[in-house]
Specification:
173 residues, mainly alpha, Rossmann fold, 2 domains, two-stranded parallel ribbon, disordered C terminus, Adenyl_kin_sub
Length: 173
C-alpha cells in the first residue's frame, strides 16, 4: 500500500513499483472515475457525492476496492493500493476482509511543496495522463491545449486535505 497527500508523488512512485514488481496498480481515484464514466450503479452513487463536493462514503469506496482486489489479475500478480485506506473505517473494512499489505509506504511531503505540485497539475482528458506545467510539461502544443485542471487540484482543496490529515493525526494520540 502507498499513501500520502494529493500531489505527494503516489502516482509516480506507483508507476516505478509496478514496472519493477509487476503488481496491479489499484487507485481509488481511477476506480471512482471509471465507475462514474461507465455509469454503473456504484458510479452514479459516487457521482452524487462528488458533485455535491463531498467525500464518497467509505462503504462505496470499499466496495469498489474489494471488487477490484477479487479479480484474477490482482490475485495472481499481487496488488498495490494507491491512496486507500484513507480513513479508520476503510482500514477496519480491510481488516475485516483480512486484507493486509506486505509493505506500507507513506510519502511525507512538506505542505508548500504539495500545494505547488497540486496547482500546477493538469490532466489530459484524452489519454488520462497527468502533467505538471513546471515539472513535467506536455511535449507538444496540441496536448497542452487540451489539458484541464481537475476539480481537486486547487490550493483550497489541498489545504483542506492537509488540515484533515493533521486532524486525523491528532485524533490518533
Amino acid at each position: 500500500m502507498i499513501s500520502g497527500a494529493p500531489a505527494s508523488g503516489k502516482g509516480t512512485q506507483c508507476e516505478l513499483i509496478v514496472q519493477k514488481f509487476g503488481l496491479v496498480h489499484i487507485s481509488t481515484g481511477d476506480l471512482l472515475r471509471a465507475e462514474v464514466a461507465a455509469g454503473t450503479e456504484i458510479g452514479n452513487k459516487a457521482k452524487e457525492f462528488m458533485n455535491a463536493g463531498h467525500l464518497v462514503p467509505d462503504e462505496i469506496v470499499t466496495a469498489m476496492v474489494a471488487a477490484r482486489l477479487s479479480r484474477d489479475d490482482a490475485k495472481q500478480k499481487g496488488w498495490l493500493l494507491d491512496g486507500y485506506p484513507r480513513s479508520l473505517g476503510q482500514a477496519q473494512s480491510l481488516e475485516k476482509m483480512q486484507i493486509r499489505p506486505d509493505v506500507y509506504i507513506i510519502l511525507d511531503v512538506p505542505d508548500e511543496i504539495l500545494i505547488d505540485r497540486c496547482v500546477g497539475r493538469r490532466l489530459d482528458p484524452v489519454t488520462g495522463k497527468i502533467y505538471h506545467l513546471k515539472f513535467f510539461p506536455p511535449q507538444d502544443e496540441e496536448i497542452k491545449a487540451r489539458l484541464v485542471t481537475r476539480p481537486d487540484d486547487t490550493e483550497e482543496k489541498v489545504r483542506y486535505i492537509i488540515l484533515l490529515s493533521f486532524c486525523g493525526s491528532l485524533c490518533r494520540y
